[in-house]
Design a protein that fits this description.
Strand order of the largest sheet of chain A: 1-10-12-11-13-16-14-15
Number of strands of chain A: 16
CATH architecture of the largest domain in chain A: 3-Layer(aba) Sandwich
Helix content of chain A: 25-40%
CATH topology of the largest domain in chain A: Aminopeptidase
Largest interface: A-B, 23 and 24 residues
Oligomer: homodimer
Order of helices and strands of chain A: HHHHEEEEEHEHHEEHEEEHEHEEHHEEHH
Strand content of chain A: 15-25%
CATH superfamily of the largest domain in chain A: Zn peptidases
Low-confidence stretches of chain A: 1-20
Radius of gyration of chain A: 24 Å
Structural class of chain A: alpha/beta
Shape of chain A: elongated
Distance between the termini of chain A: 35 Å
Number of domains of chain A: 2
CATH class of the largest domain in chain A: Alpha Beta
Mean pLDDT of chain A: 95
Number of helices of chain A: 14
Chain lengths: ~475, ~475
Amino acid sequence: MIRLALFLFVAFTLSVKVEAQPSVSQTDADFLRRIYTHTLTDSRAYPWLEHLSLKVGHRLSGSTGADKAVTYTRAMLDTLGLDSVWLQPVMVPHWERGAPEMVRVSGSKLLGNQNLPALALGGSVATPAGGITADVVEVSSWEELEGVGERNIRGKIVLFNRPMDPTRIRTFEAYGGAVDQRVHGAARASKLGAVAVLVRSMGLRADDFPHTGTLRYDSTVTLIPAAAISTNAADQLSQALREEGKVRVSMQLNCRTLPDVMSYNVIGEIRGSENPGEYIVVGGHLDSWDVGHGAHDDGAGCTQSMDVLRTIKHLGYKPRHTIRCVLFMNEENGLRGGKQYAAEAERKGEYHLFALESDAGGFTPRGFTFDAEESRIAGFFERIETFRELFEPYGLTLARGGSGADISPLKSQKGLLSGYQPDSQRYFDVHHTAADTFDTVNKRELELGAASMVALVYLIDKYSVGK
Amino acid sequence: MIRLALFLFVAFTLSVKVEAQPSVSQTDADFLRRIYTHTLTDSRAYPWLEHLSLKVGHRLSGSTGADKAVTYTRAMLDTLGLDSVWLQPVMVPHWERGAPEMVRVSGSKLLGNQNLPALALGGSVATPAGGITADVVEVSSWEELEGVGERNIRGKIVLFNRPMDPTRIRTFEAYGGAVDQRVHGAARASKLGAVAVLVRSMGLRADDFPHTGTLRYDSTVTLIPAAAISTNAADQLSQALREEGKVRVSMQLNCRTLPDVMSYNVIGEIRGSENPGEYIVVGGHLDSWDVGHGAHDDGAGCTQSMDVLRTIKHLGYKPRHTIRCVLFMNEENGLRGGKQYAAEAERKGEYHLFALESDAGGFTPRGFTFDAEESRIAGFFERIETFRELFEPYGLTLARGGSGADISPLKSQKGLLSGYQPDSQRYFDVHHTAADTFDTVNKRELELGAASMVALVYLIDKYSVGK
């Protein structure tokens, strides 16, 4: 009897284990084929992105562009026959660039007198009336900054000039290895008495586009102005410093931070047929930097996410869980939208089994990465791996890795998070620049991404991965 | 004793089998890392391509552009310290477009009188003096052509308007499913009495670029002129036909075929240290169509192939087999270079264990496909699969599939062939058009392709796959 009981126990355990694994089928393969066929012939992602890029344009939090983007995307979601569409209020920072900035070299033998292509970093203070003129000190690491020391930095403009590492295959890793200069450069240089900061743009290409992006001040030291200069300008300035020993630069930044303003996350949902109180989110961020069109960053992710819900409706798939498209406000300089969404979900006890973000550009799809709390990721990923063969015909790989900034506050719910991963090689050519324009987005690539996202959402919902 | 003998026999067989498999090592992983680091920081592929695109320009067989391309690439190979560099003579076709073609709709209510964006197909005959004016008959398949029949086709211009299938993930498959219209349309329509042919451009994008490309006449019927019109123009013409029943078009093509001329394959080689009489080839085709820069097709493949030899020299790798870079002439309208190279190799008894072609654009790398005679491919591919983990960090997949047109005549030698596979989504936006320009090639993507090609050549050489 004991042996029989043991046998039954083992058999039961095994059967539970087997049932817990998704068992993908020809039905799934066929449904994925329908998703791609629909999206590649009838997607709205591209015309939506065209409108968002060319009619709305850039849309930094607090700007009229951001307001227009909220109105437009809400109106588009309203056309999809969803169960509900609404705006979720969120207070966001309001920083303005003001009149175009000026970063000017004067009296250099090599460079003469010339303006360098520059953009104030997001959140920077302005220069004092009359601007700042000072000698430049170049460093490429925190160690070098400390080594140069206060004696040589006080009263100077510090140039942070460590390039992104071109030998990293994944450009996001190269970004991760350099962006500390942009984020912390002003605070660290100010501690040593610097009067302003220039940062080499976060790009892998030698070109004339300055890349803006956010910085973090340290409120215990003076807030000093900071601007990015193009990679070419950084190289030229560096060369002039080597050859001439001393280079004088004038900076004029006209930016200001105004009081926070009300803005919105834009949300649409299809109610779940079996577990309406459990949620799947797919999203991107609606705000962008205040240059270019914000087409790749992140108009692409927004319109793809909207297209996910449109395709689910179109194909008549009845999701088991409630599926939401969330267009988050203020990813670029505050993450207020992502935090607000997670806080509201927490307050209402809305369990999110899965959240997917597309915020790495509208380029050709390469796959998805998956993240969760440490105790849960291995179990989740084992189930995700059963989807591998379904994605192979579409050239997609599934791996453990990061997800997205806006959905990261949901991680504490212990569900599954994922980041859509398009090819990353061209992303930092346009990221946070005037070059992030609609014409650099390829229609098919955008659509293939949207279809891939529908496919993943469908499988997660059907097999309840993330619970 | 018999059992011992059997044991020894089995053990011996196993050990032989094990030795025959490549046994990739940390050394290989390290060497691949060196290849990528060198190529991503010190490649010449991009500046070479810039010269080939902007200073040489397009280079159809027999043109002065083709001559200049031969001179330039030979001179560049001469700078690399190779063991030999030479030109291999080959007679090539000489077709000229002449004055720009004209395809004009007249008297349509929808379209008015307007010129359609058009390019004569390569090899097309000219229209008679005064051009051709006739009504248009649209078909989308050979069955439809036969169904419409001679009675309705005689004296007309046939429009072949079957689009490339946008739902195919691999765009080359979509191309393969439509290009028969361009290749055989004129011959098939002529049999039914048509006076000329228009073909919908081989592209997936709705745009105004006509795509040229080669056609094949049937010498038993009248050679009629043929031109491609842009996808937008084909759609408009089709709509006008639906709405108005009858649309009249005038065509004027000014092309001509001149006598064959002497041209060259450009070849550079590094002699093998162990088996100098066995060959590995890496190449692309030097000729292009006579529009745009031929930057992706196939300037990219040529400069990547040249870069493979430069990197091998630079890293001090001593290949076991002789490694050749071959820039083939006349892939686009004759394949004479590829045939000539294979014939010479055959004549001299040069066994080619491996040939790799890059002729699918300079886009971000996805992997390689492998081909060989049916009796050998399975054995070869089993060995290739042991390289899989080495390529994973670089995002490359290895699969059975096609290789390249220029190297296909080498297949009868029973060695291994491979095609470099960059991402295909954007390729048919530019293929055979004025849009195939240098600025559409991304430096990093081009370099990542070149590095991938060096890595594969190194592994094949080291482990003698293909023998």
